[in-house]
Amino acid sequence: MANANTPKRALIEGRAALIVIDIQASTFIDDSAVRSIDNMPGYKDRMLEARKAIDAARAADIPVIFIQEVHHPSLVDFGRELDGDEDIHCLEDNPKTAIAVKEMDFRPDDFLIRKRRYSAFFGTDFEILLKGLKAETLILVGGLTDVCVHYTFVDAHQSDYFCRVIEDCVAGSSIEAHNASLKAMEYLQSGAIQSLDAVTDAMKAYKR
Questions:
Q1: Which residues of 3-30 are buried (b: 16+ CB within 10 A; e: fewer)?
Q2: Which residue, 196, 128, 175, 182, is CA-closest to 153?
Q3: Which residues of the chain have pLDDT under 50?
Q4: Euclidean distance between CA atoms 42 and 75, whole angstroms
Q5: pLDDT for position 147
Q6: E strand or H helix at 103, and its extent?
Q7: What's residue 21's pLDDT?
Q8: What local confidence, expressed as pLDDT, does residue 87 receive?
Q9: CA 200 to CA 132: how far, in whole Å?
């Protein structure tokens, strides 16, 4: 490590918020052999593990913010998103685009941010909500590790939030991409990558 003076941080610094990124119905109802977005093996199981983090956050009175990727059926808002490996996905009129309500215990009074790009910050009210909640530590779960989780993490890091990613509760487009993104995020903030057990223990001890 080049920086020998990296400060030691608590897992949760100040007020926390749990950010549930793009855990949508398609994960649980789309069993197509070829999907519009590649998923690494075990993707669905890792998304189901996120429910444990949601339950622990609720018990600790930590706000849960759901992020939902949506696109207009005309495709007008995709921009360059279809220039790579991803096919058309998350259209507003498709039931697969809905938040995974039952699996994630999504409630009518939960916070919901809809986004048209990979980062939850880009072109949304996400930061206005975070400022209102006085959040300092963002705990991330969901997918894809190498796309929407990574891009949201980077924008949060550059906005000076403490960032934690629960490695058991994120999954990428491939195992290689998943691991590379975890390593890249840990490079930006030492201690960013945490286990579900470590995070739920920190939540149990959490005091606002």
A1: eeeeeeeebbeeebbbbbbbbbbbbbee
A2: 182
A3: none
A4: 30
A5: 95
A6: helix 101-104
A7: 98
A8: 64
A9: 24
